[in-house]
Inverse folding.
């Protein structure tokens, strides 16, 4: 029997999937072309991919020169606003973004290190907004007057704001790194206990939900042939009003671990 190796991240039980994230480096792009690039705002501490509704989280933004080094010594203000992660960009409703200690969404870049730290929270979850993702855009205010040059806006990664999240129940989990595909039968299945929790990691017991289980490679890429994943019962696990469930599954073929 050929063993199939799985790590705990290989099987994902989720209420909503994430989207592919694209990142770019202005400094690297400029060096490749052999020319000076623009001054830009850049998120060095990104917001979380799945923040909780109404829960504070930190971000850090730098004013960067084309070589990637911070641009210091300037009194520059930036505007930080919440948009939907869509093309074309659409501003999210006023009042959804709150910045701790700031009333007008205006922040200042520090002269000594070219950075700006802020603590934020979002007042609505994505489900309340047709399951749309959010993003932050940082824009320089009066950049040409202060710096004598335009500044490229800073764009954050996408965020899907949640009320609750699924978590693996570590106390009940019995995980084996190697599982033999030919040792089948429901009594030999892989069991993954999950819990629905809130921002305080407390069990949520008032929601009844059906869960989707997806088989992934170690690299987090989705396995193309999902038919090799067999669930018990066939329609998959569901969360009861107890707020917990156990995903029982078998994989009917050897799956090579992506390197």
């Amino acid at each position: 029997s050929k063993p199939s190796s799985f790590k705990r991240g290989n099987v994902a039980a989720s209420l909503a999937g994430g989207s592919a994230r694209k990142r770019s480096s202005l400094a690297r792009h400029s060096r490749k072309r052999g020319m000076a690039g623009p001054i830009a705002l850049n998120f060095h501490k990104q917001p979380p991919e799945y923040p909780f509704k109404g829960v504070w989280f930190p971000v850090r933004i730098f004013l960067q020169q084309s070589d990637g080094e911070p641009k210091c010594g300037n009194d520059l203000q930036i505007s930080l606003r919440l948009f939907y992660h869509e093309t074309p960009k659409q501003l999210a409703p006023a009042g959804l973004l709150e910045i701790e200690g700031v009333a007008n969404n205006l922040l200042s870049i520090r002269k000594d290190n070219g950075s700006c730290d802020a603590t934020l929270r979002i007042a609505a979850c994505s489900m309340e907004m047709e399951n749309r993702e959010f993003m932050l855009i940082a824009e320089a205010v009066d950049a040409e007057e202060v710096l004598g040059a335009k500044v490229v806006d800073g764009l954050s990664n996408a965020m899907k704001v949640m009320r609750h999240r699924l978590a693996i129940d570590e106390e009940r989990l019995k995980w084996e790194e190697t599982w033999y595909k030919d040792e089948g039968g429901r009594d030999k299945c892989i069991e993954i206990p999950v819990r629905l929790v809130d921002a305080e990691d407390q069990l949520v017991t008032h929601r009844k939900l059906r869960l989707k289980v997806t088989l992934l490679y170690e690299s987090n890429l989705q396995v193309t042939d999902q038919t090799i994943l067999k669930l018990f019962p066939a329609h998959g696990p569901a969360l009861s009003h107890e707020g917990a469930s156990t995903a029982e599954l078998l994989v009917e073929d050897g799956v090579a671990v992506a390197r």
About this structure: The first strand starts at residue 3 and ends at 5. Residues 1-5, 8-35 have pLDDT under 50 and may be disordered. The helical segments are 26-33, 143-147. The CA atoms of residues 20 and 158 lie 9 Å apart.
